[in-house]
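Checked the freezer inventory, then went back to the computational side. Two predictions to log before the end of the day. The first one is the construct we discussed on Monday; recording sequence and tokens without edits.
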Amino acid sequence: MLPSRSKTSVAIFLIPPLLLYGIAVLLPILQSLFLSFFRWDGITDMVFVGLANYVEMFTGDDVFWISFFNSLGYLAICLILQLGGALIVASLLLTITRGRELVKTLYLLPAVISTVAIALLFQRIYSLEPLGLLNQILQWVGLGELQQAWLSNVNTVLAAVSIPEGWRFTGLYMLIIYAALLAVPRELEEAARLDGANWWQVFTRIRFPYIRPVWITAVIMATTYALRGFDIPYLLTNGGPGQASELLTTYMYKTAFTHTDYGYASTMSVFIVAECLLAVGLIVVLLRRKADA
């Protein structure tokens, strides 16, 4: 038990950030929940409609469901690139003796670059007229017939807007996982190798179980960030062509600020919050259940 003075000190330091969190995060969520029960264009009086916005969203809005499934595809690509790439690079860094700091810096660099700059960079990379880097590479390797406007093709645009987001944060998760791997006791790995374990067995039986708590945190961060992804897809395509790259976040933004339907946009924002909370719950349950199995 902490003495009363220690409890008071802890409370003094915790109350300001908790108040800030409540004002900056919880209050807007509650405000969005309140607005979701109204029709409001931001100017005229609000009209109470009860659950009508939710009924319309789930049963009468095809664009919502297109955006929802696009968001799941966007999430899958981001997770594969960010977490899969981060785990591979972090594992390889353990074997590098020279240039390790340079590699870490290069991988982390995209995370500190402006999203507008990243969007402009990938616009040029994907460009067909003038020929962008990706289409130039296809030409150099003899696959010129595959050249296309990647951001204008409904079959490729979702992957094209997901890749920049995945590339952007791979370095961040690489550093998190690399720090966790450094904490794995080397004597455990050496003992396993002496017993005849190969690299895969060392990784699956020693390294990964040891970093599982950090891995769960990284998965939660990557998942919630991807479900709330907005800026790069919006800057690259604005949800087009058609709704081929429309995400829940871009659709919500356009509903609020283009169609000035703040009540319906608030309904989608509540759904996004609930979606993130559900995803976090499923991740924690599934990964912990696998750890206990």
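The second is the one RB wanted added to the comparison set:
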Amino acid sequence: MSRHDLRNRVWKCAGQLVAEKGYVSPVDLMVKMERLTLKQVEDRRFRRIPYLERVAIGSLAKMNTILLALREFARSAELKPSLTVYMSWGKGPKQKLRFFKYGSPHVEEMYATQYIRQTYGNQS
């Protein structure tokens, strides 16, 4: 899939997620684009998968292209970025979850940012 095709797919899927949920997160987008499964996301939440990079379909370059296209979509749609902390579920102490093996703070922050539709005024 070319970068142009990938960008178009990101925009289409991100638009659908915002219409359905009022926000889009990188993880939800990856599921919608079939690069992750809901089972894999759940396994990560229960610490059965140490980081999503291990199971996601596509190279790191494609993942980076997806993130950049998502940020571009969010700016275009005037969505508000919101940093989210992903914590583990289940027994034992809760741990902050990582997206990538090496856990670069900048990359981790990009994956932990969801984009929320803003409401203006008193809309009913």
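For RB: Residues 3-116 form one domain. The mean pLDDT is 89. Let me know if you want it refolded.
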